[in-house]
Design brief:
mainly alpha, 106 residues, single chain
């Protein structure tokens, strides 16, 4: 169950990181509210997962999901460049996330 919490927390990290783009420097009310709620929910789920998982592993997987997801979402939703190098390094990041999970002993 803890890994499910980390995965959902990581997906929420993608949501709030993309949400920041729409807050216009936290000057727009509703995008700011939703972004703040996403941050809080993501952190809460991560903290719950860290009760039974090593924090270094849980945090590393959370950050990896968020970073890779935000990069992919930026390419798909925001028109950011989708170069071969970016795709390669996102894939490399995902390999590292899987490696952290597999070697965590949980």
């Amino acid at each position: 169950m803890a890994w499910v919490l980390v995965a959902v927390a990581g997906l929420l990290e993608v949501v709030w990181s993309i949400g920041m783009k729409y807050t216009d420097g936290f000057t727009r009310l509703w995008p700011s509210v939703f972004t703040g709620a996403g941050v809080a929910a993501s952190m809460l789920l991560l903290s719950q997962a860290a009760r039974s998982l090593p924090i270094g592993t849980a945090y590393g997987v959370w950050v990896g999901i968020g970073a890779a997801g935000a990069a992919v979402a930026g390419m798909l939703l925001l028109g950011e460049p989708a170069t071969a190098a970016r795709v390669f390094f996102i894939a490399l990041l995902l390999v590292a996330v899987v490696g952290l999970k597999v070697t965590s002993g949980h």
